[in-house]
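Researcher: Please generate the 3D structure of the following complex. Treat every line as part of one assembly.
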Amino acid sequence: MTTADVIVVGAGPAGSAAALTAARAGKRVVLVERGPFPGSKNMYGGVIYGRVLDDLVPEWYREAPIQRWVTRRQTMIMTGTQALTVDYRTEAWGEEPYNGATAYRPDFDSWLADKAVDAGAELVCSTTVTGLLSEGGQVVGVRTDRPDGELTAPVVIAADGVNSFLAKEAGLYGEVDAANYTLGVKETIALPREVIDERFGVRGDHGVDIEIIGCTGDVPGGGFVYTNRDTIAVGLVLSLPSLAKGDVRPEKILADLKAHPAVAPLVEGGEVKEYSAHVIPEAGYDMMPEIVGNGILVTGDAAAMCLAAGIWLEGVNFAIGSGAAAGRAAAKAVDQGDASATGLSGYRSRLESSFVMQDHRRLREAPHLVMGDLAQKYLPAVACGVVEQVFQVDNPNPKPRLRKIVRSEMRRNGLRIRDAARDGWRALRTFG
Amino acid sequence: MAAHTPNPYPEISFEARMNSAEFRVHSDAHITLDDTHCRDCTVRGCITACPADLFVPTSDGGIVFNYEQCFECGTCYLVCNEEGAITWTYPEGGHGVVFHNS
Ligand SMILES: Cc1cc2nc3c(=O)[nH]c(=O)nc-3n(C[C@H](O)[C@H](O)[C@H](O)COP(=O)(O)OP(=O)(O)OC[C@H]3O[C@@H](n4cnc5c(N)ncnc54)[C@H](O)[C@@H]3O)c2cc1C
Ligand code: SF4
Ligand code: SF4
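Model: Done. Output below.
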């Protein structure tokens, strides 16, 4: 007698979405989470793009535990002393159907897991899955750290996040390379709501999302500042191999970011409420494992379905999209009595025809470009240098021509036109 | 970022920052270190990369490791360059780090 039709490991957004769709399809679902409650182990930058929830939880925006609606987005390109900001705002994002929202993961993940429970899934927290049960090359369940803690089911969905020991145990990952990962560190900083409204120029439940390039010194990466109701999140994304090689610790780079003239006035006087860290599967498409095995599906960060590319830092939406597809494919395989890789292959085709694989495939070069020298080293210095010269008034000297300024800034920063053109062309092909 | 940027606001101590997160410590260590491997290690990436600063070099070339305030992020095993130095698992269910505002 099996415990369930589908066992989902991990109650992050991927796992809860998988449990939700499988339970709605009438399957017996067990959702196992190692934390004391869903989201207790999870941290991120802070913005959820909820459109993907439209068909899972209609009118989710009326009830999801959101902090603020993002109505202002900025990209900040900085050097140690300068900052060039693209600032976009629209009231439309603060109205139905909404775009991005800031939220705390312990709140959001718990809320989404409750939706799965409402649909009939059984949520088991404080339980760590320690391994897979297999029979003749077919996954048939999981082992947990509970006494007599074996759970059996024809389909196991690995939604166990970036380190996915289950996908590795199932042999679905090739070699694991630290270069494909970044470390995220973040401080949640408490400030009175009115102070946040004033400093960030927003009102009511509107908020700001700032992505930063060039704030990580010699370590490739990026940064962010997001507003919650009465806290702000300030954090960094840092390349693992450089962090391991260098002699600078993450909290030092974070302290430098907070002291930067463009950021310091935003965080001034705030008190650190929570410090947190988590790893990100940075390389997206190029590091994805096999996502379908015999009796097992891999979803969300466990399958590297996270898009970390400068102007984008998204994973919750991809996790929900892929998790929902995994739950549907699992239910179908159970109905048809075939949980082999062939029986489960509907998962892959569902993803191929959705934004999950389409975005990842099209943007497969984006993480490499964003972590490369052009974006990390040259772009911030050259862009800030050019703008400084353009905005500076040097009377009685006549105004220099823009072309001349660009050339001289490129030369000054050691950027060759040939290299800039090559990377610029790659960027155009990727983003264009 | 330029090191010459003066920090106009007092930085909180590392200890205070770490104490801002909740850790439900289990009596068994979920990560263990066999630091005999560390003596041959040229990279020693764990020391700078661990966001919780849990790897501390000793004067005789070894490493002292503490599991209590671990974020369970995985950085250490990903950057470690000596097979067998780090044995890595998640803590027993319900234990370890618990985030509330992240
Ligand atoms: C610093 C940082 C900033 C980010 N910013 C953003 C952002 O602003 N917007 C965005 O959309 N995305 C962002 N992301 C990415 C996003 O957090 C992830 O893509 C997303 O959380 C993936 O969801 P998931 O459900 O696949 O995995 P997770 O959210 O990691 O969930 C995995 C779950 O599985 C559980 N688990 C793991 N192993 C076991 C086990 N053995 N037994 C039982 N349970 C287990 C964990 O406790 C966890 O609850 C960011 C990530 C980081 C680190
Ligand atoms: S898992 Fe992360 S926080 Fe824990 S010891 Fe390793 S690097 Fe440090
Ligand atoms: S990287 Fe690994 S082997 Fe090297 S010092 Fe750190 S724990 Fe030891």
